[in-house]
Design brief:
alpha+beta, OB fold (Dihydrolipoamide Acetyltransferase, E2P), Chloramphenicol Acetyltransferase, 2 domains, seven-stranded mixed β-sheet, five-stranded mixed β-sheet, 29% helix
């Protein structure tokens, strides 16, 4: 019998979070290569693949789909020799044999081609797609979640066979009245009966991400921090002009310049002037952070919400912020964020205006932070501006910005000072 290898998670991969086994990508008896994906796991924040730590053959799969996975869990056993009597069977629950233990590696997006993210695999399986029919728009021809969704949308737009088939001829309307009368009477009697109320429904189980979001929201709002929100109005004219003048130059460097990087940059400057906002409340004092690690809320539709973090944003210019934000957002949509990408945030921005919201309050604070910035939808509004000493009605691109604070740590003074600085920076952007 050859040597055996216990497959575990890479050290520090979960970073204190829980994980659920989604599905196996191999079966007992399969030959695998080092860094080949073995299994998909879902944590409360990301879906990730765990790769083989060595070349060999799959001897046993020790956990079933739906099982909880910890850093101590042994996921599978590999052998350096092939066994002829492997049966095609479901994952066993046998105990791990005495074996060398190697930590599996998390699959890095750039190490395999073509790489299919867990999100892409799930969509393909759900809709029974042949991914060879799709062309990828990602780096190196990689198929992204957006590619699959666009393909599904175009497929749904095609006329179905049922729709294109000729309709059956309608029955002739020449039946004698005497024959139609009894049917009419029966129909009339049926209409006099009370309608039956249908409460048909289906239960969609919560994902680990949704469970964690629910726990986090309740804990933050009801059990931890008294929330207070302040609202300011912002004239986006200067930002709009700057973006129009510079977005093509950013595009030449493969960076899309949206409005969010401006808010990240302005928030950093405001945090530096009001450092109490970049903090964490403790019973014995207020911990002030030197680095501005800015989390940006990223909605994933029905899949939930993630908050990837732009670390040390104070060291980045607008281009650097936009590039890093683009990388993190793309990884979030493709399901390839790592747990470390969402750790260590000191302040969070929620750009809820992208979905049409003008004001959202309170936006739940991302614990253990002390504040969260909300950005509403930009829209043209009539406002009064002083022009040559005369009050004049003008049309400007306006939006509302909010700061929701933990009132244990901050008061109205710090809240309104922060927003005043933020608005001044953005309205006078150069």
């Amino acid at each position: 019998m050859g040597s055996m290898i216990n497959v575990r998670l890479p050290a520090g991969q979960l970073e204190g979070t829980a994980a659920t086994l989604l599905n196996w990508l191999v079966r007992p008896g399969d030959k695998v290569q080092k860094d080949q994906p073995l299994v998909e796991l879902e944590t409360d924040k990301v879906t990730m693949e765990v790769a083989s730590p060595a070349d060999g053959f799959v001897d046993q799969l020790l956990l079933d789909a739906g099982a909880e996975v910890t850093m101590e869990s042994i996921l599978a056993i590999l052998s350096d020799q092939h066994a002829d009597d492997f049966a095609a069977q479901a994952p066993t629950t046998a105990q791990p044999a005495a074996a060398d233990t190697l930590a599996a590696s998390a699959v890095e997006p750039s190490t395999r081609h073509p790489l299919l993210s867990p999100a892409v695999r799930r969509l393909a399986k759900q809709h029974q797609l042949d991914l060879h029919q799709l062309s990828g728009s990602g780096k190196g021809g990689r198929i992204t979640k957006s590619d699959v969704l666009n393909y599904l949308s175009s497929a749904q737009a095609q006329p179905s066979a049922a729709a294109s088939a000729p309709q059956q001829a309608m029955p002739a309307l020449t039946q004698p009245v005497q024959q139609a009368a009894p049917q009419s009477t029966a129909t009339h009697a049926a209409l006099e009966q009370p309608a039956t109320t249908s409460n048909a429904s289906s239960l969609r189980p919560h994902t680990p991400m949704r469970k964690r979001i629910a726990e986090h929201m309740v804990d933050s709002l009801l059990h931890t921090a008294p929330h207070v929100t302040s609202i300011f109005e912002l004239d986006m004219t200067a930002i709009q002009r700057h973006r129009t003048a510079n977005k093509d130059e950013f595009a030449r460097q493969d960076v899309k310049l949206s409005f969010t990087p401006y808010f990240v940059a302005a928030a950093v400057k405001a945090l530096q002037q009001v450092p109490e906002v970049n903090s964490q409340f403790h019973s014995h004092g207020l911990e002030l952070f030197h680095d501005c690690n800015i989390g940006v809320g990223t909605a994933l539709g029905n899949d939930g919400l993630v908050v990837p973090v732009i670390r040390q944003a104070q060291d980045l210019n607008l281009l650097g912020i936009a590039r890093r934000l683009q990388q993190l957002t793309q990884a979030a949509y493709e399901g390839s964020l790592k747990p470390a990408d969402m750790k260590g945030g000191t302040f969070t921005i929620s750009n809820h205006g992208v979905s049409g919201s003008l004001v959202a309050t309170p936006i739940i604070i991302n614990q253990p932070q002390t504040a969260i910035l909300g950005i509403g939808k930009m829209q043209k509004r009539v406002v009064v501006k002083e022009v040559d000493g005369i009050d004049t009605m003008v049309i400007r691109p306006m939006c509302y910005v909010t700061l929701t604070i933990d009132h244990r740590a901050l008061d109205g003074y710090q809240t309104n000072t922060f927003l005043s600085v933020l608005v001044d920076i953005l309205e006078n952007w150069r």
